[in-house]
Amino acid sequence: MAETAIEFVDVVKRYGDATAVDRINFSIGKGELVTFLGPSGCGKTTSLRLIAGLELPSEGQVKIAGRDVSRDPASERNVGMVFQSYALFPHMSVLDNVSYGPTIRGVSKADARDQARAILDQVGLGGLEARLPSELSGGQQQRVAVARAIVQQPDVLLFDEPLSNVDAKLRRKVRAEIRDLQQRFGLTAVYVTHDQEEALAVSDRIVVMKMGQIAQIGTPSELYEQPSSAFVADFIGDANLIEGRVAAGTFSAAHLSLPVDAADGAHTATIRPERITLAAGGAAIISSASYLGSRMEYVVQDEDLEFLVSRPISEPRLAAGDAVDLQIDPADLILVQ
Amino acid sequence: MTLKLTSDRAGIAWLGLLALSLVAFPWYKGAPIWQGPAASALSEGMSGHGWLWPLIAIVVALGAATFTRKWQQSNIALWLTLGAMFLYLWQGFAVGLRGPSQAWVGGVFEAAADGQTGLGWGGFLAGAALVGLLSDLIASRGFCRGERFASFCITAIVAALTAFVFFPILKLGLAAFVDTDGNLALGTFWARITAPDLWGLNCLVGGGRCGVVINTVILGVLSATLATLLGLALALLVNRTDFRMKRALRAISILPIITPPFVVGVAIILLFGRTGLVTSGVADLLDVRPGRWVYGLPGILIAQVLAFAPVTFLVLLSTLEAINPTLEEAARTLGAKSMKTFRSVTWPLLRPGLAAAFLLAFIESLADFGNPIVLGGGYEVLSIKIFFAVVGARYDLGNAATLAMILLALTLIAFWLQMRWMGNKSYVTVTGKSDAGLASPLPGVLKIGVFAVVLPWVIFTLAVYIIIVTGGFVTDVGRWDLTPTFQHIVTAFRFEFEDGLQLYGSAWDSMMTTLWVAALAAPLTTLIGILTAWLVARQDFAGRRAFEFGTMLSFAIPGTVVGVSYVAAFNVPPVDITGTAAILIICFVFRNMPVGMRAGLAALAQIDRSMEEASQTMGAGGLTTLRRVVLPLIKPAVFTALVYSFVTAMTAVSAVIFLVSARHNMATAYIMGRVEAGEYALAIAYSAVLMIVMIVCVVVIQGIVGTRKLGRRKELQGKGQVPEPAE
Ligand SMILES: Nc1ncnc2c1ncn2[C@@H]1O[C@H](COP(=O)(O)OP(=O)(O)OP(=O)(O)O)[C@@H](O)[C@H]1O
Ligand SMILES: [Mg+2]
Hints:
Largest sheet of chain B: 2 strands, antiparallel
Strand order of the largest sheet of chain B: 1-2
CATH superfamily of the largest domain in chain A: P-loop containing nucleotide triphosphate hydrolases
Number of strands of chain A: 19
Radius of gyration of chain B: 28 Å
Number of helices of chain A: 8
CATH class of the largest domain in chain B: Mainly Alpha
CATH topology of the largest domain in chain B: MetI-like fold
Helix content of chain B: 55-70%
Distance between the termini of chain B: 59 Å
Order of helices and strands of chain A: EEEHEEEHHHEHEHEEHHEEEEEEEEE
Number of helices of chain B: 31
Oligomer: heterodimer
Number of domains of chain B: 3
Number of domains of chain A: 2
Bound molecules: adenosine-5'-triphosphate, magnesium ion
Number of strands of chain B: 8
Distance between the termini of chain A: 28 Å
CATH topology of the largest domain in chain A: Rossmann fold
Strand order of the largest sheet of chain A: 6-7-8-3-9-10
CATH architecture of the largest domain in chain A: 3-Layer(aba) Sandwich
CATH class of the largest domain in chain A: Alpha Beta
Largest sheet of chain A: 6 strands, mixed
Largest interface: A-B, 43 and 43 residues
Strand content of chain A: 35-45%
CATH superfamily of the largest domain in chain B: MetI-like
Strand content of chain B: under 5%
Helix content of chain A: 10-25%
Structural class of chain A: alpha+beta
């Protein structure tokens, strides 16, 4: 990995008795886009605010560009942040909003405006400089917020659920734009979302969080293909969680028995729905079949286990009540804690 | 050690200021500022004032501590600073005006026998620097998320509130336990507090007069009851009938705020006094001897009800508006008659509002000074008695303090009840209108009742204000001599141009002082009020609730009590500022700042705090954020605070009356003098001029503050989807 841009060392954040962030460690490389992903209340926003300096850690260190900034207020860190509500200043024009940061940091008014104009052109808002934020569409406001955050060339760019105010159709487009901008400017970015699809689409790496702790860090494909826990497997994409036993190198549950490399005892294994193939005639029964346009989704009952299976539409269709055999490539079975 | 971070520089700067204040400015008051070092703490210390040495020494130690690494986060720096604060206070209190306050101090320092005067520039700056230094040290430990500006504001406001609100009250409380020679005397206290002229019940049982506490409570209860009823009638009229002059009523309800004190009392005397218009009219008609009935409880009651009805009206109007009409509709669809609906649905919902209005009026009645002094006759209330205990011939601070403590206790009980009823809601901001359904009209009987109450009030208000408007410009309104004249205005405000402008009128001095004091106090009050609101709304710091409560508490203290407490606290070292304009300004600032705070809180609640956070992440400190982002968005609140504090500074009387001096006389005190001398026309003329000046000033303030501009869709949440609030 290249130079480290952000580092958390044993960071804890408590509010009274509640612990929002519970001793987490990670580092983010320069130019990377890292996503914090997790269920509601797991501490994503808090972690982001700890980077920004809008919260100070109760314990541990936050480092930006190698410097310990744990006790520095937000105004003394060089970060840019795009807020969920955009937080544009309603009494300032678009141009004043974007040139606000540079003027604060001592750039002359004329230069600040030039910088702002240049960035606004880059994000495709040229010509709207004189408008007030209330005179822009939601998507345009979002781009002003991004322009305002990147105009000062921050060490880190932070996004807190930037797409939650954008309607579903626009979301794909805007998230591609954000990714594009981030790469064009070579920015280090941290992105908070609770939408796993969004996280998979934009991130270099994902930090999956659970109750204030880190469940797993990895690239999208690592997390999808080698989840380290049932929680991660279940949170990212769909997963079948199978409780079974390992004896003499064989994992068995219901009618399955697959070779694995693990010690004897009870284990949980996961398998993705699209990794299971179905062959007609077997011990398992299809209990429901749903047509989803691009694929078929079956729920298959095998003794006391229920499997979710997803098959391309091009395969012969099966119906509820059909007897099937579940076929699994041992390589696709992942044992988790 | 590097000085790269602004954080390091802030601490050093405070320390530098502290050092300067000790060596380069006159430590005591009286010495002109250009005497500088020669009168500084250092020189005073060397010329015998040895009790200054510990402070100087600890500051030197602090200077040495800065050479250690990360000194701002070290415990040593914090303890040294706290120690310096303690020694700063100690040097002020250890030696009084006429000698040491404790025997051992006199033993150690010979010069202590000569006493010391109050603090001057050096002393003041040292206090400020210590507060700044402390705020800086706690900020670097993470207080206020490390924001120095916020940390400084909190520390400074807490220090100021302590010095100018709690310290005087504490001092006053202590004065209640001390006899005239300054010795602790519990017996005297007991004698004072159980005095029969406080608690006597003779007016209720048998004949005679009641004690002053009983009088005060009776007046408060009656006045609050009547004012609440009148307010209710007005609110029902506006909200539940097709009466369409809402605006006019709201305008009238502002009048008492800009009406100088005494003048309503004077108008009432001119109407109902022994030679009053109404009295003599009625006497002629019925052929009875005109009486003095208006002096005493009846007169004060009339004046107070007139003055407090607007407040109760506003409270009850917002309560009525907040009642969801669907509830009443539901009752009616269930078959209830309109009277029954009113009794079973509307009335219970109104009750909390009624209680709140009652308590508010009760508190105001307790604090009222202007009306009882003009109309009281022999009817004594606490505020008056306190005044005469300090200002009258028999100066008795101990007695005044005891009475003030009783008044304060009564007020705080009412205040506490009111807080419990209303929670933290401010009655002016509650306009929770529901959009569904129409409020049910008033039952016929009640409607007649409402008009029967409101109509006399309208006539009476008109009569009073006609007298106020015309009384100053006719020869003698009291004797029905209506020859127009400018004679009174000339007496008060004569000026000529000979070698420039010459002011001859007898009122010019007080007018100028009043304008100056108001013009200085208003921006300061607003600044502190809005800052406090911002801190309470936006900063999570330990003790935030206590902080908010403390500021509100300072609002609850009756003006008379504030007045005596300032007399008790600020005519001796270390802060000896009686007789200056500063004490007037300070008094106004801390009395009125809670209003600015309330206005600010209401405005800030509508503004998403992420805008401020965005500003911070872009590198703006608290001050810049406040100036460039927050203030432009809460302009209406700034305007409210400015106008309120300006107008109150011009019309306040209860606290001010204790603090004026020959050099710094205020308009209200001057008017009171004229009223006491029976020069009613002059008093009225001056009041009319004051009102005009106030209106002009409000317009000017409006021009300076300006309005905020938010574009087509007014929105404050930082995103576009917020609909415009329904008018
Ligand atoms: N100012 C605060 N005071 C007290 N508790 C807080 C505060 N801010 C956050 N918390 C708590 O800390 C925990 C983590 O909050 P955080 O906002 O980081 O969650 P999140 O992961 O961003 O959730 P979401 O996806 O819902 O936004 C929550 O349990 C929350 O209740
Ligand atoms: Mg969140």
